[in-house]
C-alpha cells in the first residue's frame, strides 16, 4: 500500500489557518488595527465598504517596513516580536504569532503600501490568494496602508455564511471600540461607505468612553483605581441605575489587550449583587496591568483568552476595588468631563453652622376617614383595542360565580346596604392582590393571573400581528423627541426601521447616530411614556432576545416592545381594567403562558383548598 500522508500546499494551509484567525470581516479589522498600533502609530484610519466584504483599509503613520519586511510579513509564522520560546512570556505587543497577514492574504486580494521614515520611496505589494502579483517601489506617505478587498473571494462557501451588512458592521464597530478603548492616546477614525462613524481625538480613558458611547455616559461613570503587588487596576464602572439587559458594554483589558474572562466578569457582577436584578448587567471598562511573566496570552488563536498564575488573588482584588468604588461614588454628583479621575468630586461636608434643620408641616384639619377617593387614572386598555374575536372554549373554566351579597358584605353591612351593593355589583368581580395578581372565583375553585405576564402576552401577540400585516397604528407625539444612539445601536436601528414602523412608531433618521420619534404605537395607550427611553429599551431588549433565545428579527422586536410597554407588577387596576385585561388574555392564542414560557395563570381547586385546611 502506498503512502497516503502528504504535506499540505502553503495556499491550503493558509486557508485552514485563516478559518481560525479570520472568521468574518471584523476579525481582519482587529488584526490590522493591532498591527498599526504595534507599529507605533498615533493616528489610525479605518475605512470599510459593504460592511468589510468589499473593502477593509487601515492607514497608519507608524514606523513602516523595509522592502524585505514588506514581503516577509505575508509569510506564515514570520514575526518581529518573538525570537525564542521565552519571549512568549514577555509579550506586551498586540500581535506576535505571524499568522494574521498570511491568513488574510490567503482569502482576499491584498494591497499594501508602506514606507519607513528614513526611506525616500516606499514599497507596493499586491497579493491574491497567497500569490504575490506585484512588488515594486512606490511613492507613499510614511507609515503603512493596507487594503483588503473581496474577503473570501476564493472561498465562496465561507462568504455565504456571513450575516447581513448591518450585523457584520456591528461586529466591526465592536472590534473598533475595543481597540480604541485600549489606546486612548491614539487618534482613530472609522468610515463606512463614505460616512464618518467615528472621529476620536487623543483623550483620557474617560473621554474616550464618552466619545465612543455618547455624552450621556459622562454622568454614568464611577472611577476605579487600585495598586497592589500583584496587579494595578484602573478604569471605570457604571452606576447601577444605568445597567442594561445585555452584556455589550463590558470590557476587560490586560496589558492593553482586550480579553474575555467569565471568571473576572463574575468578580465585577458579584460586587453589584445587591444593587442589580439578576438579568441586568453593569457597564465597566477596566484595565489590568500585570507582569507578562505571570500570564500566558498564547492560549487562543484570536488572543482574547489569557491564563493567570494567581487568578484567585486577581479576582479578590477586582471584586474589592469595584465594591469600594460603588460605596464611595454611587451617590456622588456628576463627574467632571475633563477629569481623568473623580476623587476630587467627593461632597464637601457642610460646617455645623450651615446645617439647617428640616421643617415639618401638616394639615390639622386632615381627616383620613373623610378623604375623597383618588381619581381614577387613565386606563391602560383602550376600548378600540378589544380583541377582534373572543375565545370560544374557556367559558367552562372561567365561569365566574355571581358573588352573593352576603358573601361580600355580611361582616359589617346592614340589610339596606346589602341590597344596594347587590344592585350595583357587576356580573364579574375580581380582586387585586398586592397590585401584582388578579384573583377570581371560578366553578372549580380560584384562579390567579399574573397581570404583567398577561399584558405582555396580549401585547406580544398584537405586535406580531402588526409586523405581519404592516398595519400598526401610530399616535402622534405633541412634541417629537430625538434619541441619540451609539454607532452600533444606530446601525441596528436603521436595519430594523421598517419593522419598527410596522409596530406603530413614527420615526426617521435625523443626523449622525440620531433618530427623531414623532409618534408611538397606539397600543401603548395614553399613559405617560418617555418616548426616548422606550425606544432605547426596545433596541436593548431586541439585542437581548436575539442573544439569549436566537429569535427571528420580528419575534425579538415584538417581545422587546411587549416587555417594555406592559403594565408592571405594583400597578393598581380598576375593575374595568381587570375585565378588559382578562377578556383580551383569553382571546390570545396562548393565554396560559407568558412570553418567556412561564405560567401566566394558576388555578387552585376547591379540593386543594380543602386539603390546605385539613378538611
What does it look like?
With 615 residues, the chain is α+β, with helices and mostly antiparallel strands. The chain has three domains: 193 residues, Heat Shock Protein 90, CATH 3.30.565.10; 139 residues, Ribosomal Protein S5, domain 2 (2-Layer Sandwich); 197 residues, formyl-coa transferase, domain 3 (2-Layer Sandwich), CATH 3.30.1540.20. Helix content is 33%, strand content 21%. The protein has an eight-stranded mixed β-sheet with strand order 5-4-3-6-2-1-7-8. It has a five-stranded mixed β-sheet with strand order 9-10-13-11-12, sandwiched between helices. Strands 16-17-18-22 form a four-stranded antiparallel β-sheet. Strand 16 and strand 17 form a beta hairpin. Helix 14 packs across helix 15. The longest helix is centred in the middle third of the chain and has 19 residues. The radius of gyration is 31 Å and the shape is elongated.
Structural class: alpha+beta
As a whole number of angstroms, the C-alpha radius of gyration is 31 Å
**How many beta strands in the DSSP annotation?**
22
Question: How many angstroms separate the termini?
Answer: 85 Å
Give the amount of beta strand, in percent.
15-25%
The number of distinct structural domains comes to 3
State the helix count: 17
In the sheet with the most strands, the strands line up as 5-4-3-6-2-1-7-8
The average pLDDT is 79
CATH superfamily of the largest domain: MutL, C-terminal domain, dimerisation subdomain
Contiguous uncertain segments of 5+ residues: 331-338, 340-355, 371-380, 382-423
**Which range best describes the helical content: under 10%, 10-25%, 25-40%, 40-55%, 55-70% or over 70%?**
25-40%
Q: Using the 3D structure, state the CATH architecture of the largest domain.
A: 2-Layer Sandwich
CATH class bucket of the largest domain = Alpha Beta
Query: What does the largest sheet look like?
Result: 8 strands, mixed
